[in-house]
Amino acid sequence: MNLALWILAGALALAFTAGGASLLLMPKERYRAVGPSQRWVDDFGDVHLKIIGAIKIVGCLGLILPAATGVAPVLTPLAACGLMLLMSGAATTRFRRGEWKLLAGDLFYLSMFALLAWGRFDLSPL
What we know:
- By secondary structure, the chain is mainly alpha-helical.
- The chain has one domain.
- The protein contains five helices and no strands.
- Helix 4 packs antiparallel against helix 5.
- The longest helix has 24 residues.
- The radius of gyration is 15 Å and the shape is globular.
């Protein structure tokens, strides 16, 4: 179970680090032009998008570094809970915008973070 949780944490960290970095580095117009799934940025200002990107990157660091270094490993499931909250906000935005197919993806990520938090809190704590 420990290996499965490490793989899940690594995959989620890679995906969300890429997403957070693109929010930090790309201007809003260019990020919006990536595809129809990125129209949600219209609801947020530039500063808000940079903050969301920073939260994603810090959360991803929290998924990996505390567990890997053994320094305050309780931060790993807490980071998963924080990213779960981030995804609940994303799901709320999708719901409000009526983007039902994209909402399913957000709920999938939310459930993966919930699984990771549960696994690190209860099933295979560090």
